[in-house]
Design brief:
The protein has about 170 residues and is α/β, with parallel strands linked by helices. Helices cover about 35% and strands about 25% of the residues. It has an eight-stranded mixed β-sheet, with helices on both faces.
Length: about 170
Amino acid sequence: MISALTYVARPADPDAIDRLADTLSALVTGVAAGLVGDAIIVVVGANEAVETVAEATGATLVLRPRGGSPWVAGARAARRDWVLCLEAGDVPAEGWIRTLDRFVNTARPDVALARLRRPHAGLPHRIATRGESVIGVRAARAGDLVRRDRLVAGPTFSPRLKPRQLIARLERA
């Protein structure tokens, strides 16, 4: 099982709650399939609408400390060995459950990071992803499936982690 961590970067944005709801509703199939064990919502500051969504869905709400990594803050509240990092609005495409389940159950102990494709990401993100496939990943980002203990250890990975590219992808709601 995995923990699904969703980061709401701008909770004051009028569409933020709709994007968060889209992401959480897409995770329901993962819960029903036995893949997603818990959900964590990370937000920069207190927001009543986000708190209402977290309470209604049973998700754990975590306030990200200023300047801190949302992924590290969320990983500290996660209860599973693997953490799926998502931004509000990320929706896993068809086939994600089977792909992630297979990866989590067969990953060697030395493999600590897998990456889902994010075709909607901008050009700088795609260039960085190509470079990281060669030199390794220094920090987690949205679309990463990371071992919880590596995230809790700190905001940067030392040594760099080699990402394993998965065939699953994230779409934007």
